[in-house]
Amino acid sequence: MLFITLGLLLVQTTALAAPCQAPDSLTAIPDIKLQLAVDGLDNPVAITHAGDGSGRLFILEQRGVVRVARDGKLVKQAFLDIRKRVVDGGEKGLLGIAFHPRFKQNGRFYLNYTTDHNGLTTVIAEYRVNKNGQADAASKRILLRIKQPWGNHNGGQLAFGPDGYLYIATGDGGSGDDPQNNGQNLKTLLGAILRIDVDRRDARRAYGIPPDNPFIQQQNARPEIWAWGLRNPWRFSFDRLTGDLYAADVGQDDVEEIDIIEKGKNYGWRIMEGNICTPGVNPTCNAKGLTPPIYTYDHAVGRSITGGYVYRGNQFPELCGVYLYGDFVSQAIWGLRVKNGKLIQHKTLFAARSLLRLAVDYFSDEGLLISTFGEDENGEIYAASYESGRIYKIVKK
Fold it and tell me: Is 149 within 8 Å of 173 (Cβ atoms)?
């Protein structure tokens, strides 16, 4: 297994630009601006790259279409259209995409979407490209189905870690106050970050279980679970230099949170909402054994966090090592730095509502509803405006 992992890392390293390293001394987090990169999309919800050296951006439209942008222009033909398979609207739809670390060699990529399969179901499926490099809709291989009891809190993020395994974010199943207590139940795949091996199949599964997953030997626990106690993790990402896994967990009525996800840890939901005991469940809870967030903000600041990325590009060296994230409702972008697992800096970088008055030509009347962030192959970061269908690149101010 060690040699396989090292091989995956080698492939990723040769395909991607070397990540920048933050200076040893603490420097101020710089100001940013947004530069229009791509236009003409329909409700974009995810942005990524294939790691194949092509320079393409792949953008998910919630309705069930994978689009490609090349050199700032949207390719007319969709990379993949699975609208007939996708149930969308609200928090449902085509929500996540990840390209295999050896995509250039094997043509495999993975989708996370909701469908109607005897009731609302999250599907994790593998697809392949054909000899012309176009996605083949008929190549679908379903790895995992997860029943959804309600229509919200579907999670949706997919990403390969530096270990070559596929990580999957699931919400708690929806409704309010997690009525089934899925976030604190290791017998369900809901309310968790999952970790699976797509290069191996077990006798009973279409995928393998990594041998160091934390609950693999525990009775009454799903072996796919990497971490648990999450409400609706809307976007997680790996720091491409350190491998740290940052996740933004959307709050309920009071608190939004950012976590650094580690093996086997419980991040508190539904016992806690961010850094407080969940008011509608038990306002005097016992937080023993729970891992607190690295940062929280209350609903006077924003009401729906959108997780981002640690900047590791080379066009904006002053931003190196800063984790960028935003809020769908307040339409702001912030940056923070973490050292040894502790917050050391935080700054408001972009307040969309005030900037709208200064530069209304940047945005449609709907404003900057930040549905997702994404990285290109060089580590440059982008933000999607959900209603306007625009993608912006984060650049120097």
Answer: yes
